[in-house]
Design goal:
CATH architecture of the largest domain: 3-Layer(aba) Sandwich
Number of strands: 19
Helix content: 25-40%
Shape: globular
Strand content: 15-25%
Number of helices: 11
CATH topology of the largest domain: Beta-lactamase
Distance between the termini: 56 Å
Number of domains: 2
């Protein structure tokens, strides 16, 4: 494929210039599949990145969790419009009565409002998800009324995984193998590190102060995060096969189920984010793991699937570059232009916003907003896991944002033309109104709520 020639050349330049150790990419188009590998899979061992090297899928797993839920809906064991507690009585949240309002569909649409994005309890094996539920009831509340907003929800997907275990009597790992891996021919996909160690598997890396990559100190998240992306591991070929299962024009997971109408959050389907690339719909999901990032993009209109993995978070920038370029070979790609606008009185956005273990203090400074994000760990164990996942301290210096109008802001100094498509993740929006003040802040697809401070 001509597409792969360009991708190989660009990957080589990017990795050499950025010091990202290694990169994998694959394209399926019109019956043909090509996969390329570049660089090093593990700097500790010096193992080369190969086309069949395995890696953590990260949040791409959420697509498979959604597929498993819909399979049980089709079998009559689940009703999307039923409360989760009908099937999962153990489901509870720290706010009394909140769990009873969450429907099954909310879990796979990222609209549940469950405030558990940074909740990382330890747990191993087939009992991990049951243990997660017990902690959820003690420590995690809600960000908004279910169905009101979209907020990328790891907690919702983990609850969905436990729900599947209860209604089927099988572990999440067993279901994944039986109902996704085997039917799709994902023959090199694994459900645990113990399986993956028998094959060549990449590890993540983090950039040091001088840009040099260093190996991660934690290969994966605890098993409690399995359905959200903590444990499944496979190859680029496996992801391409997963993507091909979603090429049908009548795919129910590709139908818009919620659209907040803000520039930094794309419409949501079932599991998928539905990106608009100038009139071409791209089904998209990226997946972070400790020191690595994967992506799967499906373009039904052009019988096209793209999958990639880089073993350094800086590879996310290359994902953002390659996908629009690839789609642009088949149809024009254009994004709505962004421009700095006079937002008037910015004080309606100022205040303190919180989610579980995260605090964002917003102030007005010289016609811009200034945000200071502070990680407030619940306990030393939570801090150890999240810090290892992030590759270091999470809290950082304040960031300035310029107004673009209608409650939308862009990082000061970042070129606005770089914020289209996947670049929208860097935008920040403010939503809701309570006495003339915003009630929620949305960044990276995730909500925080005003606390009144």
């Amino acid at each position: 494929m001509d597409e792969m020639t360009h991708i190989r050349e660009r990957v080589a330049r990017f990795c050499d210039e950025s010091q990202v150790p290694g990169f994998l990419a694959g394209v399926y188009h019109a019956g043909q599949t090509e996969i390329s590998a570049y660089g090093i899979a593990n700097l500790t061992t010096g193992a080369a990145m190969r086309p069949d090297t395995g890696f953590l899928f990260g949040s791409v797993t959420k697509i498979m969790t959604t597929m498993l839920v819909l399979r049980q809906v089709a079998a009559g064991k689940l009703d999307l419009d039923a409360p989760v507690v009908r099937y999962l009585p153990e489901f509870a949240l720290a706010e009394p009565g909140a769990a009873e309002r969450v429907l099954v569909r909310h879990l796979v649409m990222h609209t549940s409002g469950i405030d558990a994005d940074l909740y990382f309890p330890r747990g191993c094996g087939d009992s991990a998800l049951a243990g997660y539920m017990a902690g959820l009831a003690r420590q995690c509340g809600t960000l908004f009324e279910p169905g009101r907003y979209v907020s990328y929800s790891n907690g919702g997907m983990i609850v969905a995984g436990r729900l599947l275990e209860v209604v089927t009597g099988l572990s999440y790992a067993e279901l994944l193998r039986r109902d996704v891996y085997e039917p799709l021919g994902m023959g090199t996909a694994a459900t645990s590190a113990e399986e993956a160690i028998l094959r060549g598997t990449a590890i993540g890396h983090f950039p040091g102060p001088d840009g040099t990559a260093r190996p991660t100190g934690m290969f994966k998240l605890p098993d409690t995060w399995g359905p959200a992306g903590g444990t499944p591991i496979g190859t680029i070929d496996d992801l391409l096969k997963l993507g091909r299962a979603h090429l049908a024009a009548d795919n129910p997971m590709a139908v818009v189920t919620h659209d907040m109408g803000v520039a930094n959050v794309p419409p949501i389907g079932m599991g998928w984010l539905l990106e608009d690339f100038g009139g071409t719909t791209v089904l998209s999901m990226s997946g972070a793991s400790p020191g690595g990032v994967a992506v799967l993009a499906v373009v039904p209109a052009h019988d096209l699937v793209f999958a990639a993995y880089g073993n350094d978070p800086r590879a996310f920038a290359l994902h953002n570059e390659l996908i629009p370029e690839l789609v642009g070979r088949f149809a024009p790609v254009a994004f709505p232009p962004l421009a700095v606008a006079d937002e008037g009185d910015l004080r309606r956005y100022a205040g303190t916003y919180r989610s579980q273990q995260l605090r964002v203090d917003v102030t007005v400074a010289g016609g811009e907003l200034e945000e200071r994000v502070t990680y407030e760990p619940a306990d030393p164990d939570q801090e150890a896991i999240f810090t290892a996942f992030a590759g270091g301290p999470v809290s950082g210096p304040p960031q300035r944002y310029v107004p673009l109008g209608d409650g939308l802001f862009a990082p000061a100094g970042m070129p606005l033309e770089s914020l289209g498509g996947y670049g929208r993740v860097y935008l920040v929006s403010y939503l809701g109104d309570a006495g003339g003040r915003a009630t929620h802040r949305c960044a990276g697809g995730r909500m925080t709520r005003r606390t009144g401070e």
